[in-house]
Amino acid sequence: MPKRKIPMRKCVISNEMKPKKDMLRIVINKENQVSIDPSGKLPGRGAYVSIEPEIVQSAWEKHVLDKVLGTTTLDDAFYQELLDYVTHQKARMSL
């Protein structure tokens, strides 16, 4: 039986290629609303982030997602929500 191809995505913060299941998609839709997309199927332009709290914290400090998604509307509340979500997912993966 042939091996299946594992889809890879590039983290916009660390520029590291990882399997898609180990990444989190952040999406911006036509109304310029940014949201976390755990399913990976929401419509809009997406950017992938590693599920690592340290990487998300560095993105928060440098406001990397603002630049990547082309918006200035990301506030600290969104970054805090993202950090909480990533921390929770990281804890679930370690179980």
Q: How would you explain this protein's 3D organization?
A:
The protein is an alpha+beta fold and 95 residues long. The protein is built from three helices and five strands; from the N terminus they run E-E-E-E-E-H-H-H. The strands form two sheets. A three-stranded antiparallel beta sheet has the order 4-3-5. A two-stranded antiparallel sheet has the order 1-2. Strand 3 (23-28) and strand 4 form a beta hairpin. Helix 1 (53-62) packs antiparallel against helix 3.
Structure summarized in a few sentences:
With 95 residues, the chain is an alpha+beta fold.
Descriptive labels:
95 residues; alpha+beta; two-stranded antiparallel ribbon; 37% helix
**How would a crystallographer describe the biggest sheet?**
3 strands, antiparallel
Shape: globular
Unreliable segments of 5+ consecutive residues: none
**Fraction of residues in H or I helices:** 25-40%
Content of β-strand:
15-25%
Give the structural class. alpha+beta
**Series of secondary-structure elements, N-terminal to C-terminal:** EEEEEHHH
Spatial separation of the terminal alpha carbons: 30 Å
Oligomer: single chain
State Rg.
14 Å
Number of strands: 5
**Tally of DSSP helical segments:** 3
Strand order of the largest sheet: 4-3-5
Tell me, rounded to a whole number, the average pLDDT.
93
